[in-house]
Amino acid sequence: MSLITPSKNDAVQQLYTSAVPNSDAVSIGWTYPAPQNIAMSSLGYLSLFQRMDQNPRIRATQVSTDTLLHYQPNEFDLIGFSMSFELDILAILDIFHQWQLPVIAVERREHHPLVFAGGPVPITNPEPYADFFDFFLIGEGEDLLNELIETYQDYQKIHPTASRHQLLRHLAANVAGCYVPSLYQIEYASLSDGPITHIQPKYEDIPAVIEKRIFSRQEMAQTVTQSPFLTEDCVFPNTFLVEVMRGCAHRCRFCLASYSMLPARGPQLEPLKEAIRFGLQYTNKIGLLGALIADNPEFPELCEFLQHEMHQRPDLKLSSASLRIDTLTPQIAETFKQGGQQQLTFAIESGSERLRRRINKNLKQDKIFDAADIMARSGIKAMKLYGMVGLPDESDEDIEALGTLVQDLKKAQPKLEFILGCSSFVPKAATPFQWQPRPDNKTIDRRFDILNKMLLKKAKFRPSSTKWDFLQAVLSRGDRRLTQLIIRFHQFGATLGSLNRAYKSLCDEGATPCPPPAWYALRDRAEKDPFAERFPWDMIHLGVDKPLLYQEGLPPKSLTGV
Ligand code: SF4
Predict the structure, then answer these.
(1) Are the C-beta atoms of residues 285 and 317 closer than 8 Å to each other?
(2) In this structure, what are the phi and psi dihedrals at residue 197, rounded to the nearest 5 degrees?
(3) Where are the beta strands (DSSP E) in 184-278?
(4) Distance, C-alpha 389 to centroid of its chain
(5) Looking at ligand 1, which atom is closest to the CA of residue 349?
(6) N or C: which end of the chain has fewer CB within 10 A?
(7) Domain coordinates of the chain in residue numbers?
(8) Looking at the whole model, is its pTM more than 0.85?
């Protein structure tokens, strides 16, 4: 049974058959911390819902911020959150309040459901949210989620009076990828301004390190993750989404999408074609998803297939996530042009070849001009570039190089529209740049200003918010001492200016709850000895050992001359 509750638009078309849940099925509220029209655009969230919905041992219900009051939390045995962004925690705290669920996990009583989170954020660093959740799922959910719920049910049947603590301990000991933060002891050099010195499980049967669960390469080759629903009321209206690649093998040193999803994998051509043909029975819009879709080894053949389909069906519309600029060919540009796309997006990060080498984005300048030329010839109207400001070893000259590059592109292709979107560097846990400091907000704003002036009347410039990026940087390398600060920040309205106010108000009450926000966001964590302190996320292993990550984050020999 599918339990979607329609919000504004009740025309949600389900493209698969649900299982009828058993009478003793485990009930789960599968919750997206945003309105339903956003949830309906998240392929990861929806495809995991489908897997649960097809399992008769599970009664799954989709919940979003605009449908949650249709339910009482106690209707569920488990409440699971899909967490894609650090700042999702603010919407999750709202949901706890609206449901009157205790915010702190250990304050929940036996009658409360167990509350957990999975997704890209908790996979890499769950620690700033450790006190809010009973457990986290570390890894790809395809097998993990169903296995977790079945283990939960089996244990409940044998031990119907087991306490929450016993149940959590059983899950942590028996489900690989289940991390229960309350079962770990964390020690600090100093609570108010010192790093972590020890991370230790409290019991012998609890793993010291949680290995990320991976959906196997073989299964992935044959299984296409695709839209289980279609609706007009979402970010990609009536678009059948198909995952063409998962992860990215290029390993740009800042890139969470790459390091958190290694190894890069994708489905083979035949299952992809089959999925697209299936989607085309219901809609004329196909969306190709993946960190880098052109890295699928059979992408040229996929383009051929799509061109053939468009020939048969001229109303077919095609959209894609961002492409790698040096993989653009006339065939790819033509495919997307034919599919109705007026703009293609490429992340180049920097205008300077030196800095691109520093971050392992080994992209030659002439490839960028070649791509603009290919686009102009194909008749596509706009080229959107993504840049990043504040990268390690960046100077003002590198920023000027980015402005000059966009100016020169405009000179070379005057008919093409150029848009430069720019974010600021957020050092992410589990990447080679996890040790690197983030520049202060003044430096970043000054560099955004340089770009703004250089691109006036030549290109559209869209910088991100420095203050929100700073908050992301606090959380991305944060630890569980941040709990009270997050709660107070949320109480103060979670506005751009309220982080420091929240920290000060906690300090004024007499206790310093955690180091100041800048200690988390801006600190160089390799200054003395890169391995002297334990990182909050050291109990999570995503597949690359810490010494190797550190080596990969150093400047390449071609730049240092060593
Ligand atoms: S090419 Fe793009 S997706 Fe791949 S590692 Fe680099 S930034 Fe990440």
Answers:
(1) yes
(2) -110, -30
(3) 184-188, 196-201, 210-211, 229-230, 239-243
(4) 20
(5) 7
(6) C
(7) 13-211
(8) yes
